[in-house]
Amino acid sequence: MVSALRTRSAVxxxxxxxxxxxxxxxxxxxxxxxxxxxxxxxxxxxxxxxxLDASGIVRMDCQESIDPVLLNTVLFGPLxxxxxxxxxxxxxxxxxxxxxxxxxxxxxxxxxxxxxxxxLLRQRGWQRVAxxxxxxxxxxxxxxxxxxxxxxxxxxxxxxxxRAIIELTPSPKTAYKLNAVGRAQTAILLAQHTCAVDLFxxxxxxxxxxxxxxxxxxxxxxxxxxxxxxxxIDDLIDALDRDCKHMLAC
Length: 250
Fold this sequence. Notes:
- The protein is an alpha+beta fold.
- Helix content is about 30%, strand content about 35%.
- The protein has 6 helices and 14 strands.
């Protein structure tokens, strides 16, 4: 009787982390993620099933025929990113540029202008480090190479660390403003713009929150408000170029 009670108590009910349709390889696909008995269990439409344990071992039961683009997207996204979270490595949904003083990341909602800012500032002499995904491998902001799906081959290697993050908030008829953001809000931005955070098991979510708070306390953070159209884009980039250089020089 005691043994039976222990067995039942050891079996935990699944925790549903995600159960919705998401954008994967240019199509909406249903994804269900559950954390059960210390394992992350994933079911992805048009892909199949995968199971990840705490040691980082992934077991997959894939469909016989899978779109190669979907396969790469899943391998380097829903599967790899939770694995990396076990060792405190996280990927930001952000573009990034670099100067001799360090790296600046641009984050924001889809269509906010992350890739556009990085591309136009590259024309001003900045080095583009990331176009869509920025891999950070420590709470000191050290950056590592990571595949760029939007524009493959668009990024350059860097040995520098992240120094600043700028949140892009375009809106109609808004004048250029670059306002300072406090440490608490910086940590929230880092947490909100971490890729695949909904798939992190509970313990990794707590670790991720601590990482965001630690890194956020070390970064410059600004919120950029601007009118989102092509009129006056040169003046916008000139002002942003000047302000970014000044921020990193401080």
